[in-house]
TrEMBL record:
The chain crosses the membrane at residues 12-28. Keywords: Membrane, Transmembrane, Transmembrane helix. This is Alpha-1,6-mannosyltransferase.
């Protein structure tokens, strides 16, 4: 049995409130272009993202390095043939027997069209120039890497550039004259937050905070070498030095009560330690955008890679810092330079710690750099949604 809707004064007031609330919600949705989502929620100024929700124009090449795939090169000696090959879309209908595998390593046309161009190898072979227009987009461009001396110097040698060092733990740059490309590297001691920490790496040159090093060391060095311009792309990594700083800090500057002597050996970091790193990393991104007065400055964060030295649980700790860093990048519109992820399994170290020798990593590093630089220079391709 259906009961009629009561029409007493009390019920009529209730119906009126519900009706007005529904109308208000409808107009709010209409004014804002739809109900709010995580993408539309406003962030604090320091965490604002320059990315838009607009889909990328068809002229923007899809990012192969952000997709699942495989790193391939025929041998250690032929490292200049290194490529990252995204996996084609999986279909359970596609059946293949091991006897059907093409062992020549050839890549079919459809897959080839999705790969990044092998610009590092072309520059290595000095295939410049029957048609200079192929390289016009690189001329006069500037890429800055924060904490990446090893890779920049290796790449510089492979693409026939000339390098200049401002000091081993200071910085330097590579200039490739024939295409007028400059790649700078800055060295920092991680995200240290206090210049008065005299016990931390006391033999290293000061200043030690990134704010003072950028302002007092890096920018003056660049001006003196006439590289006084806004970078077209900046790639940052701050993990390994931070792991040591976070680990050693409570031993060098004991809290009250002091921690046990074996604190450095704990398997991983505390939540608060990771949150400190996140806070400082967000400060660094904000600082770089502010000093160049460019809220949409093309920024990337280079992810962790496997290391040989696992002392003090360092492998797990690096992974934990890296996870927190990716969270900050997502909130602040900083893209991920997945060099470390893509190299997993390549473990030929020459210093028993964290540096790779010249090899497949160098060509991967170069091709990723050129791909993202081109993306940053292509109208509408950096801040759109892939």
């Amino acid at each position: 049995m259906v009961h009629p809707i009561p029409l007493t004064p009390r019920w009529m007031i209730l119906y009126g409130v519900i009706l007005l609330s529904g109308i208000s919600i409808w107009f709010m949705r209409d004014d804002q272009g739809g109900f709010s989502s995580l993408d539309s929620l406003s962030l604090p100024t320091s965490l604002s993202s320059p990315f838009s929700s607009t889909r990328c124009p068809s002229s923007c090449q899809p990012d192969p390095f952000s997709q699942r795939g495989l790193l391939t090169y025929p041998s250690i000696e032929k490292y200049n043939e290194t490529r990252w090959i995204p996996l084609p879309p999986f279909s359970s209908d596609h059946k293949i027997k091991l006897s059907q595998v093409d062992y020549t390593g050839s890549i079919d046309t459809e897959v080839e069209g999705r790969l990044a161009e092998q610009l590092t190898a072309r520059l290595n072979r000095e295939e410049l120039i029957e048609d200079e227009t192929d390289w016009e987009w690189l001329k006069g461009k500037l890429v800055v890497f924060l904490d990446d001396r090893n890779n920049v110097e290796q790449l510089c040698g492979e693409i026939r550039g000339k390098s200049k060092s401002w000091g081993g733990h200071v910085g330097g740059f590579c200039h490739v004259e024939r295409i007028d490309l400059t790649i700078v590297w800055w060295f920092s001691y991680g995200l240290v937050d206090d210049e008065s920490l005299d016990l931390w790496r006391k033999l290293e040159d000061r200043p030690i905070t990134f704010e003072s090093r950028i302002k007092d060391v890096f920018l003056p060095a660049m001006r003196s070498d006439e590289i006084d311009k806004t970078p077209d792309l900046m790639v940052i990594s701050s993990l390994f030095w931070d792991e040591g700083f976070i680990r050693d800090y409570p031993q060098l500057y004991p809290p009250n009560p002091p921690l046990p002597a074996n604190h450095r050996d704990r398997p991983g970091f505390l939540l608060g330690q990771i949150q400190w790193h996140q806070s400082r990393l967000s400060d660094l991104f904000t600082y770089l955008r502010e000093i160049y007065d460019k809220p949409d400055l093309p920024l990337m964060f280079r992810t962790r890679h496997i290391r040989s030295n696992m002392n003090y649980g360092g492998g797990l700790k690096i992974i934990q810092i890296d996870q927190g860093a990716r969270d900050v990048c997502e909130a602040m519109g900083v893209k991920i330079f997945r060099w470390g992820d893509l190299l997993e399994g390549v473990s030929d170290y020459y210093d028993k710690d964290q540096h790779f020798p010249l090899g497949p990593n160098t060509y991967l590093f170069g091709d990723m750099t050129f791909f993202y630089l081109r993306k940053a220079l292509s109208p509408g391709c950096w801040t759109c949604k892939d």
